[in-house]
Amino acid sequence: MKKCIFTAAFCLAIGFVVSTGSALAADPVLEVSDCVKCHAKVVHQNQDDGASHKTEVSCLDCHEGGHPPTTPKEEIIPQCSKCHEGEAHFEVKTPCLSCHQNPHQPLHIVFGEDNVAVCNTCHPTQVNEIKDNPSAHGGFDCAVCHHDKHGYIPDCMECHEPHREGQTFADCVSCHRVHQPLNVAYGQDEPNKNCGACHGDLANTLVSGTSKHAKLQCVFCHKDTHGNIPACQGCHGVPHPQSMMQKFPKCLDCHINPHDLAI
After folding, report:
1. 64 falls within a domain
2. Domain termination site, one of 110, 128, 143
3. What distance, in Å, lies between the first and last C-alpha atoms of the chain?
4. According to the model, what pLDDT value does residue 192 have?
5. Are 59 and 32 in contact (CB under 8 A)?
6. For a tag site, which of 97, 99, 102, 103 has the least CB within 10 Å?
7. CA–CA separation, 135 and 130 (whole Å)
């Protein structure tokens, strides 16, 4: 009798284990609404800063095929190339997660140590400007200037001493193109105080003069490009008789200083 009771109990136990094991062997059927129950932090990150990872796909579009413990975790973490392919930016050798460290917040970009090749896939104009116009800027990685976050534009004075007191970033870039800083160029409204920051003696001579030149902006004569020295005839034509011009063919033979014609 005892043997029969033991045998029955053993068989029931085996049956329970088998049926329970079968239940555990099957992956649970999940809905997106289930994800927040265990992964609240990740879901909130995605909702706040998910970009297209929030608007174009759901959790289960990326994490498909099961759920731990029945499916190993590494099998449900997708490769970025599952969706992101066919463009130069997705083909660089730098691992995606070296910059996009949290795929649930893909636009929170953290720069690594060597970023030029990666930056070039989206910003070739700027990268080529630096390569084609040698300057000290060409010796640095992009992240040296754009270091805080993707899209960060630094103030020049973070590295450079200003030319004059009160100089602003807008003053800097009105002359210096940041990716080709030695190619100085400016518009027609550049104030004389900016020119005087480097050319103080000339600016002082100009403003203290008594000729009509004293009322002009520097860029009226030195148009468009830094170092441009105009011919006087561009404004004055041939102001003297031909006989005088033959004897003194150069204007500055008499008008010694164009910044103050009275000198």
Report:
1. yes
2. 110
3. 133
4. 92
5. yes
6. 97
7. 8
Q: Sign of the C-alpha dihedral, residues 130, 134, 136, 140?
A: positive
Structure tokens at 79: 């490769």
- Count of CB atoms situated within 10 Å of the CB of 70: 11
Residue with tokens 């731990």: 68
Greatest Cα-to-Cα distance within the chain, rounded to the nearest angstrom: 144
Tell me the whole-structure pTM to 2 decimals: 0.69
The one-letter code for the residue type at 128 is N
**246 domain-assigned:** yes
Query: Of the segments 124-128, 190-194, 256-260, which one has the largest average pLDDT value?
Result: 124-128
In total, how many domains does the chain have? 2
Place of tokens 């992009």: 142
| Residue of higher predicted confidence among 258 and 28 | 258
**Domain with 215 in it:** 192-253
